[in-house]
Every structure is written in C-alpha cells, then in structure tokens.
Specification:
2 strands, two-stranded antiparallel ribbon, mainly alpha
Length: 115
C-alpha cells in the first residue's frame, strides 16, 4: 500500500444495532461507555485495560469520531437518556418499587439497631 492510499479516510469503528444502539465494532460495548470513561479522565490505554474486548486503535477511532462530531453524539446520548427514563417510568408505573424499597429500609434499620 502506498502512502497516498493510506490517506483515505476510514469510517469510525462503530455500528448501529437493530435497537438503534451505537456499538464499537466487534463488541457489545456502546459508545457511551467509552465516552463516559474518557470524560471521567480515563486514558485510551485504561479504557482498553477495563474492557478486554476493545482494541486500542478502535478506542482512538471512537474518541476521534466523538471529538469531531461532539454535538451530534451528545444529542444522540441525550435522546437515549430520555428514552431510557421514559421506559423506566413506564416500568415503575406497572410495578411500583417504592413499597419494596420502604420494606428494605425498615429491614436495614432493624438490622442496624439489633443487638
């Protein structure tokens, strides 16, 4: 391969699955996992160490894509968060968890106060 041939742009190592989730190619790791780790200060090497199915060049490729298209990716992430919140609320409406949480608080309190 010549130097000029290597200058051709490569697509980011991402794929959209059937559920509309953007995953790192060859893994089941969503883009938000890498972005969250990066935003928390993890280096690409640390991210690869934490997720053994990732390759360093893929992490750099995803982060490069994110940094070049930050507004678009941030909008995608916000939309996913809103959808997840809607699903959580729908599930909570069908099966409220607060009564169970209250029971667990009582049990924990009783255990702490037991001799």
């Amino acid at each position: 391969m010549t130097l000029v041939e290597t200058l051709i742009a490569e697509p980011p190592p991402l794929r959209l699955n059937a559920d509309g989730v953007l995953l790192v190619v060859g893994t089941r790791i969503p883009i938000e996992t890498l972005i969250n780790a990066y935003e928390q200060g993890d280096s690409p090497n640390q991210i690869v160490a934490d997720y053994d199915s990732l390759h360093l060049d893929d992490v750099y490729g995803v982060l490069r894509y994110y940094l070049r298209h930050r507004a678009t990716v941030d909008r995608y992430l916000r939309e996913n968060e809103c959808e997840a919140e809607e699903v959580r609320q729908a599930i909570e409406a069908l099966a409220p968890t607060e009564p169970l949480r209250q029971q667990l608080r009582i049990i924990r309190s009783e255990r702490r106060n037991a001799p």
